[in-house]
Amino acid sequence: MEVTDLESLRFLLDIALILLTAKVFGIIARKLHAPEVVGEIVAGLLIGPAVLGIVDQSDFINKMAEIGVIMLMFEAGLSTDMKKLKQTGLKATVIACAGVFVPLAMGAVLFMSFYGFGPIGSDQFIKGLFVGTLMAATSVSITVAALKELGKLSGTVGTTIVSAAIIDDVIVIVVLTFVLSAKGSGASVWVTMLKAVMFFAIAIITGFIVYKGFKWLDARYEHTRRIPIAALVYCIGMSYVAERYFGIADITGAYVAGVVLCNLHDVKYVERKVDVSSYMVFAPIFFAGIGLKVSFESMNPTLMLFSISFVAVALLSKIIGCGTASKLCKFKWGDSLKVGVGMMTRGEVALITAQKGLAAGLISSDYFTAVILMILVSSIAAPILLKILYKKHPSD
Amino acid sequence: MEVTDLESLRFLLDIALILLTAKVFGIIARKLHAPEVVGEIVAGLLIGPAVLGIVDQSDFINKMAEIGVIMLMFEAGLSTDMKKLKQTGLKATVIACAGVFVPLAMGAVLFMSFYGFGPIGSDQFIKGLFVGTLMAATSVSITVAALKELGKLSGTVGTTIVSAAIIDDVIVIVVLTFVLSAKGSGASVWVTMLKAVMFFAIAIITGFIVYKGFKWLDARYEHTRRIPIAALVYCIGMSYVAERYFGIADITGAYVAGVVLCNLHDVKYVERKVDVSSYMVFAPIFFAGIGLKVSFESMNPTLMLFSISFVAVALLSKIIGCGTASKLCKFKWGDSLKVGVGMMTRGEVALITAQKGLAAGLISSDYFTAVILMILVSSIAAPILLKILYKKHPSD
User: Fold this and answer.
1) Contacts of B226 in chain A (CB under 8 A)
2) Which residue of B23, B62, B63 is the best one to mutate when testing the A interface, meaning the one whose CB has the most A CBs within 10 A?
3) Which residue has the higher pLDDT, B198 or A301?
4) What are the sequence ranges of the domains in chain B?
């Protein structure tokens, strides 16, 4: 029997503090012409263990944040312009590949120039590859939020970034499996690839059926609560199934669920309802949650130096990899830079990857600090740079 | 470092299952001309340990449910008609008193007729009083949901019920402190009373300031997100402060926060945004959560007989107490019955009270089954009876 007792009401205070500071700092950020999402992350940094320490991340906050990022990616899927998605599909694949392999190589080189080079196949080499993998996993949710704020999410650049990030996620999972299996732990690379392919195959087949079902609902019960609720259930279900049974990130499942429903007649209604739930409670918790994760407790000069190099290489390698690939795909310079910057955001996937590497003995726990800094810096820098780039080089 | 790992994604499945079944059974209930909320409770009963056992209540679900009931009571506060609240204030006080003392007496008599009478002040007598206290705590959230569905929440009867329930809550806290201190545990009755009075005094004083602040916001930023978010922060903050520092139930704090803002120019906008967040995620989890709590594992014939008597006395004593008091307050027969039925719903407060009694050695854990059954039966019966009563005896 679990009864919520007085002690555990602490979660209410946490939520109130997060929502309040996130909104206030979001408004301040906007006054400074910076994206609101940056203010919300800074709010988390400020009230979290890094500065004031009045709110700690807790299991409850983490779960609420996870729902927040799932809603965000679902909304991105819902606002997809199917025609643009098809047009940009091939380009997105090329960009995703470059966005994985350039950071992978540069990360490996960074590691080995700090800790010594090793021949191909050696332990040192595999460790280097793993550090590269840590840099490869894009998590585009912050970019999605920034693009949404700019009203550019379903433009050509926006669509390219989001679909490239989805493909990136799949490639990284395969690379990660490869590296872990080279170290003798983890599943077979073929099984991982098969599972990823199966996920998309099943998502497409069931997607058609689900879409038909929603069209039927839509025709009979337009603008009733049951449609957005059913859509949210489908989104959460897909997130769960993707991660639990296919090893695909839950946010990818949520995005795919959104794409399945993006042509629905009532899609704006669904989006609006999900959006209200998201911005009233879940999204601010997700954004502030990024700042809450940061703590400088275990910081020392060497770790600091490595962390800074790690973050610099992580951000630059994505911009170089994805930017160059975009340019090769005939994007203009300005748009290529936008794609590069948009792809440089990292998120939880990097943390989960780091945890797997720790379990497999590939890295020490010191790396968590570097990974969290990478998430924080990229999450703050990307929205600001995107805003500037869209101002300097307007596009759809 | 807490990272949401694959294992803990279980919470996503739980939420998807709860939202799906709650909506489906809500629709089925409506087809059967029963209130939707009854369907949602039955959904929880079905998927919970009582029947299928595919979803267990967890700490996460409990916390989400708590936010759900807080939002519900906040909405009730927001939709308050201040004039009606003032008109019905005195009547509500009389009804609340009857609604506490009739169940208190009948509960004590029930206990002593099962387990033997004892003289005033004896251990047996105090135990009886405690069982009576268990029956005294009204939790009006289900009634609020039922009245909202009927569109009668801010009518005279609706206003009377909600304000009587708030007063009931305060009286029960004082009675509980009295019983616990008679047993030699718990705080002093005077301190408890003083804290309750202080809560309302502080709520009124700060309420004026908060209302001024919101009016200023409202004038400058009408229909912007910051207003509903600030309102939600105030609501959650009040819930926390009420329970943490004044021993008043969190839902009472939420209701009071709603009343403070009920005259705001933009109140409908705030209500709508809170309502979307509530019905999309939190409220169904709260309703289904009631069903999820039920389990028949430890059931045996004696316990069954006692539980049934307990539930019957609990429900009847509220109807008799509050119904008679309403009649004395010049309500019509039909409306008096509505008030009695509306006041008979019980909720978490009864569970929390039971837990305190267990800790003080006043009852055995067997009582939890009876208390949960009382919550379940009252939560299902009250909305159905209210719907019938409003049909037979229409009123505002």
Assistant:
1) 23, 27
2) B63
3) B198
4) 3-392
